[in-house]
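Is iron/sulfur cluster placement plausible here? Inputs below.
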Amino acid sequence: MQPTPSPLPVNLYDLSRAALGELLAGWGYSAYHRDLLWEALYRQQVESFDALTGLRPDLVGALRERTRLERPVTHHEVFSTDGYTRKLLLRLRDGQTVETVLMRFKGRATVCLSTQAGCAMGCVFCATGQMGFVRHLTPGEIIGQVLHVTRILRETNESLRNVVLMGMGEPLHNYDATLAAVDTMVDPKGLALAPRFITLSTVGVVPGIRRLADEDRPVQLAVSLHGATEAERGALVPAARKWPLAELMDACRYYVEKRKRRIFFEWALIAGQNDTPEQAHTLGRLLEGMDAHVNVIPLNPTVGYAQSPSGPEAVRAFQDILASYEVPSTVRQRRGIDIDAGCGQLKAAVERQRPPTAP
Ligand code: SAH
Ligand code: SF4
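Reply from A.M.:
I modeled the complex. Tokens:
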């Protein structure tokens, strides 16, 4: 008989400050020691037990024996020619890889984080959707991506300002781990990132949006719409069949009213598909009177989807129509397009380059 493998020791990055406190309290250490450890992890950002020099040696010994300090490691890395974007493919404990993108623009560093390996939502234009779902990330695997880029930024005395949960995966399909990671990001004794600079983007998971509204979590909300009628949205976003547009918009209105906070709507502009004046009018009518802002993103071409981005004139016309409904919009810059910086695209490109496996 195979022996049962012993469970892995807990990864400290998976724990909230409260959970870390409970762990240490169980070993007889007070909240003072918990806070010293928390600050070492997220302020000094130590990377090994040996570096925990400010803690009692017996506590370090117990941690070494019963916990692990595990972060993702670089598997592959590319830099964009515009010099602003660095795209990382990070490897997790089980060999899965996820994308993390660091953008430095006008002194404001932004990181784009993954919340899942793959994605179950299947959006037709998205490289991650084309891969399918592999697994959820743990809170520590999400925080590990943040620490990976803060380490890079420290080399040049820069700090991280913006976090966007717009990498691989659907954050509200992995609600608990994602929001646990967000809580660690904003913890004032640790990374202390500002909630107004953390944006969670969802494909439109209705129960998750309602839960976010009820729990008042410290994030800005972005909803990927891409179509303003059931049929048009359903053709691009299969998840729309589960959460129809009317229910999604009800949840969005509930969020705006309850939180008194604006929602961002994302719209990947695909030439001849969802960039027509008719679509723009339908979207304008849908959002008219709501505290909403539309981010239009000309499509990033992917291997699995043979459509093109809208040209500048179509983009401008689309925005003008939205403006006639007093719906503000911004064109999101496609930084790093030369390095497959769209969601899931680097992983797809690296996998295409891998030599075929022997039979
Ligand atoms: N799953 C979440 C967050 C990750 S995707 C969501 O769908 O919102 C982040 C954003 O990138 C979404 O708005 C998504 O629609 C968009 N996106 C994905 N692939 C794209 C592509 N090829 N071109 C343009 N935008 C894309
Ligand atoms: Fe998943 Fe978002 Fe890609 Fe859709 S766009 S497949 S929800 S990651």
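Short version: Confidence is low (pLDDT under 50) at residues 355-359.
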